[in-house]
Design a protein that fits this description.
CATH topology: Serine Threonine Protein Phosphatase 5, Tetratricopeptide repeat
CATH architecture: Alpha Horseshoe
CATH superfamily: Tetratricopeptide repeat domain
Order of helices and strands: HHHH
Helix content: over 70%
Radius of gyration: 13 Å
Distance between the termini: 27 Å
Number of domains: 1
Shape: flat
Largest sheet: none
């Protein structure tokens, strides 16, 4: 729908709640990071998205393993982001 400006504070708040109540290394926190990163990617804010995808991927790999579907999806999102970053140079 393109309502990114309205969505951003909701994603940020979700991440804050996850970190506070579940901890920085919880898989649900990684999901919140991934979601916010995906929003930033969609907005063309690649430099903000990349560290969030990286952090999310690190958590998923540590907590769920390299073969878990969430880890694979996050890894794919990071690859897509980096491809977009290379195209925008």
């Amino acid at each position: 729908m393109g309502r990114y400006q309205e969505a951003e504070p909701l994603f940020v708040r979700s991440l804050e709640i996850s970190e506070k109540h579940l901890g920085a290394e919880h898989p649900d926190t990684a999901t919140s990071l991934n979601n916010l990163a995906f929003l930033y990617k969609s907005m063309g804010r690649y430099q903000e998205a990349e560290p969030l995808f990286v952090r999310s991927l690190e958590i998923f790999e540590k907590q769920l393993g390299a073969e878990h579907p969430n880890t694979i999806i996050c890894s794919k999102n990071l690859v897509i982001l980096r491809e977009a970053m290379n195209r925008s140079k």
